[in-house]
Amino acid sequence: MLKILKYSFYDLMRSRWSYVYFLFYLLLGIVLLFLNNDLSKAVITLMNVIIILVPLIGTIFGVMYYYNSREFTELLLAQPIKRSSIFLGQYFGVATSLAMSLIIGLGLPFAFYGIFNSSAIWDFSLLLITGGFLTFIFTALAFVIALSNENKIKGFGYAILLWLFMAVIYDGLFLMSLLYFEDYPLDKFSLFATMLNPVDLSRVLILLKLDISALLGYTGAVFQQFFGTSFGVILSFVMLVCWVVIPTFFIWRIAKWKDF
Amino acid sequence: MIEIKDLHKKFGKNEVLKGIDLSIGEGGIFSILGPNGSGKTTLIKAILGMVIPDSGEILFNGESLKNNFKYRDKIDYLPQIANFPGNLKVSELIEMIKDLRATKATHDEALIDLFKLQPFLNKRLVNLSGGTKQKVNLVLTFMFDSPLIILDEPTSGLDPISHLRLKNLIFAEKEKGKTILVTSHILSFVEEIADEIVFLLEGKIYFKGSITELKTKTEQPDFEHAIASILSASYA
Question: How close, in Å, is residue B231 to chain A by CA atoms?
Answer without folding.
Answer: 28
